[in-house]
Amino acid sequence: MRKNEPPLQQVTQPPSECQERQDAFSGFLPKLNVKDGMDRLGADLEIYASILQAYFNQYRDISQNLKALLKAGKDEEVFREIHTLKGASGNVSASTLTQISMDLEEAFINKDLDKMDSILPIIETELEYIGVAANQLKATMSRQHNS
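Predicted structure:
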């Protein structure tokens, strides 16, 4: 940024309305940092909800995919999938999934298949939570628009 240039801002709603909506949804989405996710993505709440849904759709089958890749001996692809999940989880501010993905990555690096097997069901559960949260967020916002 050069001197005398105002900082770039992406504002799609008045700040007070955005803040009210973020605060309202943070209460029923305790595993997601809604404000942080919106800030990271430069998105309003509706776009954030859409991104959460896309994230869920992208990763909902990750456990089965990883198991198949492991069975096929495709270690580079396994690592890339885990690492990408970790990064995407951080991007949407799914802190629990970010931490679990870090644990999974460490288990893979250490070739601890038992630990990986114990972590994958947790990832599935956390991803289901994200899917439900995205649907709840979209439904609630839709009701607000219609009232």
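Summary: The two ends are 42 Å apart (CA to CA).
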